[in-house]
Amino acid sequence: MSPAELQALLQLWHVPGIGSWRMRNLLARFQTASRVLKASVRELSQVDGIDQILAGHIKQSAAERFAEDQLQRVQTHHTHLLTYWDADYPEWLKTINDPPVVLFVQGSLPCLSQKQLAVVGTRNPSVYGRLMAEQFSRDLTVAGFCVVSGLARGVDTCAHRAALATGGNTIAVLASGVDVIYPEENLGLAQEIAERGALVSEYPMATKPEASYFPRRNRIIAGLSLATLVIEAGQGSGALITADYALECNREVLALPGNINNAKSLGCNRMIQQGAKLVTCVEDILEELPGYGAGSEAKPVSLLLSQDEERLLALLTTEPQHIDALATRAALPTAKVLSLLLQLELRGLVLQLAGKQFVRKG
């Protein structure tokens, strides 16, 4: 699409009340956005969904400055502007009820055409939830999937980091412009995702996050993905909204079972009662997606460990252990154990908790 047509499309997109469905109807009728803007009120109002009031708004659109600003920001921030009619637009996303007509993508366009699986959950996971988010994301990456999530605190962050640490790609769908990272603490992670995967948003550049944007962006997370895996979610969690969108798109919904006494597992356990696939390993997921398990290009990280690292790793479990206890059991100085643990943590094998407690991942 030419720069002039992109500008016309952005002007049309900025008209209040236009929406994705009406824009698709208009371009189906007039072929290009510039022709839409030049059409008469009478011609516009003959299109399904366009009444005379909206047709008047289209004719009175004064969004040239908005469109020019967006195109400038796209260029400044090295961002791709994808439209519903472009060849690189994700085919899976086109099949949802309300696909965005404009996507801002910072990073790799080819990763949008990979097989993708959403990993979502609470912003405040338990130790178990964090470990499982990382384990499943690593295993899915090794199986050749691109992990999709929302860059939020908690499960989303764990999923993105684990996919990157395993040498794979990951996609973060934002509830803001791709140049406005939220939460700010994930700025470094977002930059790494843009280098090795993609940041995606339907919101204009420079848009700040608002509460109503998060549920809406969840439909894109679900729409990009063959299936949605919910790691840990309480009642009312945004992850359950993503799962609902997945069902609406006729995609698989998968859930990790949790402690019945843990409020953070109530949503997952209820989903399983209602028919979601209970999963305990990546093989359970691949069973639900026949034909999508092979062909991984991502490789697991090297696990060449020293003798002391192997000995220390063998002592670790998913139960937290204090560094002093580990030093005693390993018969090594505490300073030496701390250095080894930090190396294992950098390799994605160990997780440090508060109070110098450590657990093994996966």
Could you name the key traits of this structure?
elongated; Rossmann fold; Arc Repressor Mutant, subunit A; nine-stranded mixed β-sheet; 362 residues; alpha/beta
The number of helices is 17
What is the CATH T-level topology of the largest domain?
A: Rossmann fold
Helix amount? 40-55%
Order of helices and strands: HHHHHHEHEEHEHEHEHEHEHEHHEHHEE
**Main pleated-sheet profile:** 9 strands, mixed
Number of domains: 3
* Percent range for β-strand residues: 5-15%
CATH architecture of the largest domain: 3-Layer(aba) Sandwich
Account of the protein in words:
The structure is a single chain. By secondary structure, the protein is α/β, with parallel strands linked by helices. The chain folds into 3 domains: 1-72, Orthogonal Bundle (DNA polymerase, domain 1); 110-288, Rossmann fold; 307-360, Winged helix-like DNA-binding domain superfamily/Winged helix DNA-binding domain (Arc Repressor Mutant, subunit A, Orthogonal Bundle), CATH 1.10.10.10. The protein is 45% helix and 13% strand. The protein is built from 17 helices and 12 strands. The chain has helices at 3-13, 19-30, 33-38, 41-44, 52-59, 64-76, 91-94, 127-142, 155-165, 187-196, 213-224, 238-248, 266-273, 282-288, 307-315, 323-330, 334-346; strands spanning 80-83, 102-107, 116-120, 146-149, 170-173, 198-201, 227-230, 252-255, 277-278, 321-322, 350-353, 357-360. The strands form 2 sheets. It has a 9-stranded mixed β-sheet with strand order 1-2-6-5-4-3-7-8-9, with helices on both faces. A 3-stranded antiparallel β-sheet has the order 10-12-11. Helix 13 (266-273) links the parallel strand 8 and strand 9 (277-278). Helix 9 packs across helix 10, helix 11 crosses helix 12 and helix 15 (307-315) packs across helix 17. It is elongated and about 85 Å long. 45% of the residues are buried. Mean pLDDT is 91; it is low at 296-303.
